[in-house]
Amino acid sequence: MPSNSEYTIFICEGTGCVSGKSHEIRLALEQKIAEQGLSNVKIDFTGCHGFCEQGPIAIIEPDDIFYTRLTVEDVDEIVQSHFIEGKPVERLFFKDPVSGKAIPLYKDINFYRKQQRIILRNCGHINPEKIEDYIEREGYNALKTVLGKMTPSQVIEEIKKSGLRGRGGAGFPTGMKWEFCQKEQSDIKYMICNADEGDPGAFMDRSIMEADPHTVIEGMTIAAYAIGANEGYIYIRAEYPLAVKRLRIALQQAEDMGFLGDNVLGSDFSFIIHVNEGAGAFVCGEETALMASIEGKRGMPRPRPPFPAQSGLWGKPTTINNVKTLATVPVIINKGSEWYAKIGTEKSKGTAVFALTGKIANSGLVEVPMGMTLREIIYDIGGGLIGGRDFKAVQNGGPSGGCLPASALDLPVDYERLAAAGAIMGSGGMIVVDSQTCMVDLAKYFLSFTQEESCGKCVMCREGTLQMLKILEDITEGKGKEDDIDLLLELSKAIQAGSLCALGGTAPNPVLTTIRYFRDEYEAHIREKRCPALVCKNLITFYILPDKCQGCGICKRGCPVDAISGDKRMIHIIDQNKCIKCGNCLDVCPERFSAVTKVSGEKIEVPEELIAVGSWQNSESEEKL
Amino acid sequence: MATTVINVLNQYSRDRRNLIPILQKVQEKEKYLSSESISEISIYLGISENDVYSVASFYSQFRFIKPGEHTVKVCLGTACHVRGGARVLETVERELKIKPGQTTADGKYSLETVACIGACALAPTMVLDNEVQRSMTPQKVVDLLKSKNKAENDAK
To answer: Which residues in chain B are closer than 8 Å to A323, comparing Cβ atoms?
Structure first.
């Protein structure tokens, strides 16, 4: 029976889904629907839903059906079955990684159900390139309220009462930051949005700008009104081309409709926003470095005071806020500071957005009230670890943050409690790791990042991180010495004390927390020359198990350096001198044989020359004979 | 060549604040910053070539040698790291026989690494000519480069 229902299908066109060809899927849908002459189906697109791993994603309204992992080949079936016959396509439903059940409706998916989306409220629900969609969901109402009924001081008071703190990581109270700048007497002031989301492992700012750019513009305009700025800059990473494009479209639309420009909404307040693209320097996320970069200089931090509120961009009073902070502002104005202050914990109000990634079943963006435990976030929302494996650690806050062990799982997440445990809220990166991740290697990874990104101004940051990196390299290569751990701790203290900005000040955190919670792993590397996670290349060996090898030759063909010798129905052998430990043999060995193994700190006996499959006897069995 | 740079310069006022946007635009058009371009920019903005270099060399986005026809960027963000990003990079290095920052002898491929492209849920990722490739494995790298080469040979 043909369906007469009206449908709207929203295809996600965030960076993740676009990489899965969601744009092509939309075009194919448009073509198919035109061919079939269906007038009851509308096609639109949204920005990022935050559930990128399941992408490409589509939502069909009004039923609220949620399709995942779409391909162009699925288009015909969706049109025929769902839109013509009225039967949703079951095989495209989301499959819960824990229960294995197919879940048709968006609202029933655990990943979304336990979230409270304030900052991400519009993400995935509106077309980011249509200002009308934003306006339909209370967009620019807050700006109207502020310009029509509130003085700048009243706005600041409202934000102060809400308890909003900077979402860039440090958690400084936003209302106070605005007040400092407002009180400065100056003919020119600047409002900057820090969208230089440089932390590896964090992508919420990108998603917000791709999915809901107007909320950032509205929040920024309100902030500018409060501090008395007429000119603003959005400093955004050049690595985010789609976000840049959507921001530019949104700025033009806002200007056309009078939300930006001269005499905003007929008031005597004028405000314009420029977009500056970053050029790939992590340190530019630091506010004084960011301003130097806008001024066309090397992005190096300078001492504070003077703080930007007194002397910022070109020496003028300046306020810098993070994307998420600004995206929260319109909601606070619309719903009131009292409503906002009820969410969260005593000192950390509102919600926090985390980028939940790594070895987690449901990778994606998660927004929860402050105070939720790590366990709830990782298990209830994240669905636990991939393949139900055991949790080992969670790394919070990127290169400035720390690694927390299983004993910290019941820790309620807020600024203070994370800091007390040695991690930080930071940018909100939350990377879950299992037993296959080596904590020493992870610490080395972060340190090599900060070492590379150190601008070089402060000696301790420039040289100290290099020395720490060299020590960590030695440890992971089996050249670690007994007093290396103490030396790392000592260097960490010196770097924290001797660095101007937070890059150096927090660079030792990943090392400090891994030593604090996973000291035994450091000791295994140093004393036993063993990597328990089987990651550190110099400490691991690959073997072909002679009793399991069936002589199929797949590993030999896949070895990029010809390190495997063997012949048909002969037991294959790895030449350890040639092996580069790429792990390809382990990947390609058929599961039914599972003849390749990786070990650390042990030796497995293998034949010295080629022998036939089945003829292997190790020294023990020979002795028995 | 010089006309491209001059066309870019004419879109901006002679103000130092435009230095980084100019460098970005010139690189977008010319794929890299040649010493001639740097010289043009320095004259236009009235700042020394030294100064232009000091800014350009600070930011990892800028290149001073001509890149290959195609660019492979391997993401080394944290999520990619814990899901095997290093193996992806090693495979690309092996297949193309170059290290990050280098270009193949035939001028076809350049290899770069990037700290994070913000597609962490798709880890490990790499970017081939602005297209994000998700959930990469060593085998997928080999296949992808093969099919890219095949498509080009067929086109010829």
So the answer is: none
Tens digit of pLDDT for each residue in A433-489? Answer: 999 999 999 999 999 999 999 999 999 999 999 999 999 999 999 999 999 999 999
Residue A366 contacts residue A372 (beta carbons within 8 Å) = no
Give residue-wise pLDDT tens across range A492-529: 999 999 999 999 999 999 999 999 999 999 999 999 99
Q: Report DSSP letters for A244-271, one per residue.
A: HHHHHHHHHHHHHTTSSBSSGGGSS--B
Contacts of A19 in chain B (CB under 8 A): 119, 122, 125, 131-134
**All domains of chain B in start order, with CATH:** 2-58 (1.10.10), 70-155 (3.40.30.10)
CATH class of the region A351-433:
alpha beta
On chain A, the residues whose CB falls within 8 A of the CB of B80 are: 200
Q: Per-residue confidence at A625, pLDDT binned at 50, 70, 90?
A: very low
Class of domain A131-341: alpha beta
Looking at the partner chain, which of A18, A206, A295 has a beta carbon nearest the beta carbon of B118? Answer: A206
Query: What distance in Å separates the CA atoms of residue A406 and residue A478, rounded to the nearest whole number?
Result: 27
Which residue is closest to B87 within chain A, CA to CA?
Answer: A582
Task: Return d(Cα A349, Cα A83) in angstroms, integer.
Answer: 44
Would you call the peptide bond into A2 cis, given omega within 30 degrees of 0 as the criterion? no
User: Given an 8 Å threshold on Cβ–Cβ distance, is A357 in contact with B121?
Assistant: yes
**A239/B123 Cβ within 8 A:** no
Whether A18 sits inside 8 A of B137 (CB atoms) is no
Asked if the Cβ–Cβ distance from A200 to B139 is below 8 Å, we say no
Distance from CA of B80 to the nearest CA of A (A): 8
| Cα dihedral across residues A176, A178, A180, A182: positive or negative | negative
The span from the CA of A336 to the CA of A159, in Å, is: 9
What CATH class is the domain A439-527?
mainly alpha
Q: Which strands make up the sheet holding A41-46, listed edge to edge?
A: A41-46, A7-12, A58-61, A65-67
Q: How confident is the model over A204-232, as pLDDT tens digits?
A: 999 999 999 999 999 999 999 999 999 99
Architecture of the domain defined by A7-113: 3-Layer(aba) Sandwich (3.40)
Interface contact B55-A297, CB threshold 8 A: yes
Instruction: Convert the pLDDT of each residue in A21-59 to its tens digit.
Output: 999 999 999 999 999 999 999 999 999 988 988 989 999
* pLDDT at res. A3: 56
Give the number of beta-carbon pairs within 8 Å between A and B. Answer: 150
Say which of B20, B78, B121 has its CB closest to residue A279.
Answer: B20
Interchain proximity B61–A198, CB inside 8 Å: no
Cross-chain residue pair B21–A584, CB shorter than 8 Å: no
The answer to whether A570 touches A516, Cβ cutoff 8 Å, is no
Domain A537-624 listed as CATH 1.20.1250.20: no
ipTM (interface pTM): 0.91
Task: Choose, out of A246, A298, A360, A579, the residue to mutate when testing the contact with B (most B CBs < 10 Å).
Answer: A298
Residue range A306-349, pLDDT digits in tens: 999 999 999 999 999 999 999 999 999 999 999 999 999 999 99
pLDDT one-digit tens code per residue, A545-577: 999 999 999 999 999 999 999 999 999 999 999
State mean pLDDT over A53-79. Answer: 93
Distances (CA, A) of A173 to A159, A349, B62: 9, 10, 36
